[in-house]
Amino acid sequence: MKHIDVRFSKDAIELLRSMIGQTMLKYKCDPFIFSTSVYGLAGIIFKNGAFAFTNFTEPLDYYGVTEDVAVFRLVSMPEKEIYSQIQGEKMIEVAVNNQIKEIHIVNENQSLFEDGIKTYDVWLTRGVIFKFIDGLELSFEKNIWFSEDITIERGYDLITRFSPVDEFLENWEGEYRGECTRETITLTDTHS
Prior knowledge:
By secondary structure, the chain is mostly beta strands.
């Protein structure tokens, strides 16, 4: 059986943990045209730093074939380096000005079975949900395997807006069967 793990690294989780209790000033992304999806990169800005969610392709084993698969990551970077990946496009800046109460990391476990035998066990980070002290939420969700888009939503109970796990199940036929489950890791202020 092949194991693949493209969940957020321990360093990325620690970056998120450091945001608890901080005030997110704004987020930056490409303009929303037909949906709330943006291409490849979205930034979140704080008084003392900036971070980017990226979702760019890299060669990866995609169930037996090497494909360019989008991998969701979080990195620290200067705000001036957070710019549109589309030539000639200017990012919008959306004010948030809200203190982070907790952060939910949404991971998926995708399994592929061939003739009833588990052949792939894949873990990936599907997205992140920021919950603010007033109850409002802001989420960044990685789209399907090959898409470099990131979906950004604001509102409440945003986990219900994430793509359903059934989408993974629909891609297999014949002797192949897929299973997909989600787990949510909640980061909170351990000092309160």
